[in-house]
User: Fold this.
Amino acid sequence: MQFLFDKYDPANSQSASEADARGDFSRRTILKSIAGAGAGLVIGLHLPTAAKAQSGAAAVFQDGAAEGMFAPNAFVRIAPDSTVTVLIKHIEFGQGPFTGLTTLVAEELDADWAQMRAQSAPANNELYKNLKFGVQGTGGSTAIANSYLQMRKAGAAARHMLVEAASKAWGVPADEITVKKGVIAHEGKGKTASFGDVAEAASKLTPPQDPFLKEPSEFVLIGTDLPKLDTKAKSTGMAEFTMDKTRPNMLTVLIQRPPVFGGKLKSMDDAETRKVKGVVDVKEVPHGVAVYAEGFWAAKKGRDALKLEWDESEAETRSTAEIVDDFKKSAATTGRVITNEGDAEKALSGGGKTIEAEYVFPYLAHAPMEPEDFLIEATEDGATCWAGSQFQTMDQGAVAKTLGFRPEEVTVNTLFAGGSFGRRATPVADIASECASAVKAIDAKRPVKLVFTREDDISAGFYRPLNVHRLKGSVDADGNITAWDHVLVGQSIMKGTPFEAMMKDGVDPTMVEGASDLPYAIPNKRISFHMKTLKVPPLWWRSVGHTHTAYSTETFLDELLAMGGKDPVAERLRLLGDKHPRYAGVLKAVSELADWGSQVPEGRARGVAVHKSFESYVATIAEVSESDEKGIPRVHKVWSAIDCGVAVNPNIIKAQIEGGIGYGLGHILFAGINLDKGRVVEQNFDTYRSLRINEMPDVQVKIIKSAEAPTGVGEPGVPPIGPAVANAWAKLTGKRVRNLPFATDAA
Amino acid sequence: MAKFTLNVNGKAHEVDVDPEMPLLWALRDELNMTGTKFGCGIAQCGACTVHIDGQATRSCVTPVEAAAESEIVTIESVAGAEAKAIQDAWIKHDVPQCGYCQSGQIMSAVALLRETPKPTDDDIDAAMTGNICRCATYHRIRAAIKTAAAELKS
Assistant:
């Protein structure tokens, strides 16, 4: 098997020579190029033959294919007791695929919800690739979107075979048999059977190539608030995360990484570390120094006792202010133009009122609640991993490469992850390769669980990249916007990684998405960008480029509308015209939900924003007042409307919008990663401030009814909350916040 | 290293550990009770919340020697009317997303209801502000606490 990681060594991913290795790798990549600009993390629709024919593929299960189990395809198993287990190819970290993908199968299977179970699928790129990526992985809010037909077909094929088995047993035509809530029946003969009754007979039949699928109007389960399958385990402390997993004889490993990005170990004195009771070994590894111990506490004490010197000659040693100044210099000039309509420059000097605004967006850490971790047990024949693996193909490849195995010799068991927000989806598989390097350094003598402390998590890099935007706009005497000139300065997430194949003509779509496709009818528009290269590793962070583009575009638009004396909702609708009905649809829906234009309580103001990301449309209205903290709004209420096509589970969609609002809001108000001579200043939640319950607004969500194919919900709730709050704040105080987060701007 | 007796969930456990070791790691690494989570290590996030003599306590900054001889209750066996009402309400509202912080949230919420059976929004803020949820399930946590309080009253 020609594998992805032939010459790529993720262990070197932070070294100076990485570019060559990566370049060599990227030419081999199997990823297809991006389908279109502004598509976010939606990698070209790649539908290999095997995946197309998945429902007909007689798949071999790697685990759990117990005796008597009916396994019609790679996703469905029906046990003699009629329980149906769905193998979930996407990681479950709260966004709901265990429930959502199981719903799709249950719908076409006509199963009873009570008989449905979900289980993580093993890493197997052939069987379980993300149909939008071409590799197994979760991201870009694609779990439902890429699985919608695949999982329904898997359920429909199983149903077809169960019915055929009953038809043979009862000697009746298949089309006279009904299936309802898990009961197979023939009314004329008065026969009924459970799935388990006919499972064995069904397992001897040939799966249908193209099973019959329901019309949306026939859906019984899709569109209902089915309870989440993982809620009970997560409400009783029973859910197992990587942090909780142990293996016999396992060692806990903490790695001391360089204090600056691009730093290298110069000298190590581990004498004091080795004296710590419970410390077993200390090794230099490609990413720093690994301390091996019996348990976390000894590993931490041991690591704290290390005396290390670092070579910083190749490292990023600037402070944030210097980096921002450098970005600002670039922002003063037009960059590589990606959208150019009319003549923005001419229009800007055409005599109307103009505004120029500069925005600074800091680096952001993801800070998932469960710090990063990875567990590997290796033998001579292969390795077994337990991890909250988000890009299983990448993690499997990184472990295989580091330990000298073929990918198929590495088993990856995907466990629940305590959040990610993008952090566990590094194209360079940093967590997996660090753990594998630690295993390799002790010749795989004992299983190793790599654990990050919170400080490691926040200071290890892989941030939402720092961005500076400069916008210029003009408004004519009638208040109409005549020009829009947007310059973005940031770091590419994809360049130098396996995802570089998604870049077209040197443009990383994640840098400009949400800005390059501004939907408003403005006659003169120019959007350009500058790509900066820094040693601070950048990464997708829940909603990726939209985290900053939604903010700058929707607040700047609001400012122009205010200057022109226009209503923020009515004028947005006019500028959207009839070309963007789904943008307009959510905007109208949210303005009705919030009763926009009605009396707002004394001391409060409202702001609105609308943004499309991951093919879903979200409009949000926020109501704010001044809080006890200077310069920080108190957000009382938020209304959001989302159009994400068919709503598979409205309750989960609402939860994702609520959570997206909270996640977006916390960072817009409070969070930023700063460098002091290259060293990360923020280390834990005392300085990297998170939203807390007293700061969470009351949220109301409306889902637009739609028969369109489902699109993303995990990320699209995030982008509009920042600008909605900022626009409300500007209305309340007259202050336009452009230096994020609000806490920084206030200081 | 030193020997301590930890009374956890009604059972006495002997541990031989560094006296400075936080209770969190004694529970997780020595007693293999992994329902109590590691989130920050500095009492900022509340994922490690347990009850020590009935008080919601951050086990990540509580040394084993300080917890010895006390009654420790963890998510694995938290029980009673308040605990049942809280866990039922968590399920009813489908509160958890990633779920990692929820052990701590539930331990804090149970302690709140034991102290304040009819909590106001301000009471909920005061009791729950120390528990971070990065998925921001706060909206449902608040609703679930109110549901549980109403359930207890009836």
In short: Chain B touches chain A through 55 residues (CB under 8 Å). DSSP finds six helices and five strands in chain B. Chain B has a mean pLDDT of 97. The first helix of chain B runs from residue 23 to 30.
